[in-house]
Amino acid sequence: MDQLLNDFSLGLFLVQAFILLVLIFALRKFAWRPILDALQIREDSIQEALDAAEIAKKDIEKLQSKNEKLLDEARLERDDILKEAREASNQMKEEAKEEVSKISDKMLEDARNAINTEKQAALTELKNQVATLSLEIAEKLLRAKLKDEKAQKALVDDFVKELNLN
Amino acid sequence: MMIAKKSISFIVVIVFTIFSNFSFAENKNQPEQTLGNPVDTQEEIDAYIQHHLQDAHDFVLFTNGNTGNHIGFPLPIIIWDEELHFFSSSKFHHGESVAESNGKYYVLFHEKIYRTDAEGTLTLDDHNHPTNVRPLDFSITKSVVGMLLIGTLMLLIFGALARDYKKGPLPTGFSRVLEPLVLYVRDEIARPNIGEKKYRNYMSFLLTVFFFIWFLNLLGLMPFGFNVTGNIAVTVCLALFTMIIYMSSGTKEFWIHILWMPGVPYILRPVLAIIELIGYVLIKPFSLLIRLFANITAGHVVVMSLIALMITLKAAFGPVVSTGMSLFLTLFISIIEILIAFLQAFIFTMLSSLFIGMAVAEHDHH
Prior knowledge:
- The complex is a heterodimer of chains A (166) and B (366).
- Chain A has 166 residues and is mainly alpha-helical.
- Chain A contains three helices and no strands.
- Chain A is rod-shaped, with a radius of gyration of 66 Å.
- With 366 residues, chain B is mainly alpha-helical.
- In chain B, strands 4-3-8 form a three-stranded antiparallel sheet, with no helix packed on it. Chain B has a three-stranded antiparallel sheet with strand order 5-6-7, with no helix packed on it.
- The chains are: A mainly alpha (166), B mainly alpha (366).
């Protein structure tokens, strides 16, 4: 202890205190403050970048889910439209079919009526023809058969016989 | 970085030229000096180690034991003895002669300057300490040279680091080595001990002290024989700075806890106050300064003693074995010393921030 006290040099102590003070203030101005500030700024910017990345990630996720939703909606709408279109076309087809069948029915009816009328007319014609022909034939037959007296008389007899029987 | 390197070598050159006449050795043959007899006895080795541990007023690189020649350069002597005296340490001739300045005579005795008369008489007391007047010695001693060197180095390299951040967020080159060290002090020492809110105020002090001690410790391991952090005046100064800082930044709560401890019987409170005050004013700084001083001094003593093994064991084992042993052990201890150089800087800064943390802490309880 005595040795230590003897070794202690007040002059050196004061010189060192001076050097240390100057060093602390000089380094603070020219080194520590700019260094620590730069480090702080760098750390802050890294933190900011990380935060921004996190936010961007969340935004992208949000956007993605939004897109998904939009897509779903679009799909649903498309399905609706398709369904409606299909229904409309079916209806149109149905209507067209009905129309067509109505028209064809009518045409058939008309045709049938026309045919019937024609047929009636043809039948009447035919009947008239046949009647005329049969009259002519009967006339001819009668003429041929009743050319002599005997035949006339036989016929009258037949009639008479028939009349008697009745 | 090239600029920094160039300016460092420039400063070294300046230092050498200012304290010029590099070899200022005078061929003074002293008949009573051990002529042709290098440092080789136990007493001489002890004296040599003792001498090394002390501050020096000139910068001696080599001493030729045969001729008494010292190779090195003198340093300026500045003393305050009623008036300012300024002269070169070459006047002392390595403590061998009396220096005269403005009509007053001074002599160097165990690297301390005493006022004396023209003949250089010293009166010694029982402890072999001179009773002569010791003037206030502001000399640029070897320790001061070391501190100035390290201070300049710190300004250069950390200034370069600071300038590097102006170019971009990432430093380049050597600054990349320094940045993690700064971050280490901030994140491992200051932040956890002082707290997130207040640590910034103390960063300048902690960073300066940390690198100052570490670099000076490392300088002490280099072969120029600096022993700055192993000097009691230096560690006292460092510890005093810490003490002043934590005492001046104490919160109201801190002082209440020291002077009038709540939750303790009233009779005990003054007793506790005395104990706490002694603890904060004396014991804590004392533990700081003694720890650093003792560790570094012990390291220097061990390394030098191990080097001296070469001589002390020569008789027992022969020159080759003793030299080999000495080199091996010195290498081993030197590696440990490199670790201790960092460790002591770390512990000093760590404890400083711990004490500051105690002073500025905000207690939520009570």
